[in-house]
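We emphasize that the prediction below concerns an isolated chain of 147 residues; any contacts that depend on oligomerization or on bound cofactors are therefore not represented. The input was used exactly as deposited, without trimming of termini.
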Amino acid sequence: MNGMRLGPLPRRKTAVHVFGDFLAYLYQCTRVFITDTHGNGAALWNAVEHDIQFVLSHPNGWEGAQQTKMRRAAVYGGLIPDTNEGKARIRFVTEGEASLHACVLNGLVADVLSVSRSMLFAKPELITCTESLKARLSDSGRRRWDT
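Result of the prediction step, given as a token string:
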């Protein structure tokens, strides 16, 4: 990491706890922003607080084990209850998928993508949205994601 060394975590503190603390901080900031900036912010927050769906991004290649730890962090951070219903409110997206969605939503790939109903079609050529995402469709139509 660029020659930097990180010190050890405090005793009995895991990476799940650290991530949970970070999620709790983001959640608290979001709650404060909504309740303070909207005219009926407190009522709005109270109406949706227990139904919020969370979408967490993770590196390409992470699967069940890592997603389970991220769910535990969300429980630890107080975002969701430790129930099946609470855990169902957590969704995952890879960084590549998130980058593609951001590019599509911001019109950065309009010249190579077209949408018909719920299908997304891409020309079989290199699409570069961000430095972290390169999607290439081969002539056979198979997708390959490079990061």
